[in-house]
Protein: Histidine triad (HIT) protein
Amino acid sequence: MSDLTLDPRLEADTLPVTELGLCQVRLMNDARFPWLVLVPRRPGVTEVYQLSREDQATLWREATALGEGLMKTLDGDKLNLATLGNMVPQLHLHVIVRFEEDAAWPAPVWGQGRAEPYDADGQARRRDEILAIIEGLDLGEA
Structure:
């Protein structure tokens, strides 16, 4: 992984997966939801508009391609893409596959129950699944 310094909360709450052209791909450590966090490797950026136009396009391309791959693989009911940053100012984008039967449906996942951390096997399975999805993505220029 790159030498990008992560906000301590992102570091504590997520697990590293890989890097794309712009973003670190991190897995939220909550096995209740297929939930990724994309962190652009641009120091000091807190808002999308602070990225160059090219980086904005790349962020959106990476998020939507990864979200589409997850939705198809997991047969999700809804894809949630969000940048909030109220508690973690470092720019990051949530990519969450939702199911009508998940623990928080239809509410947002934030503040719903307690996170259920992945065990080692569950983390490895989810990571392998994400890497397989990424292998099949076309993230080239539009």
Observations:
- The first strand starts at residue 14 and ends at 19.
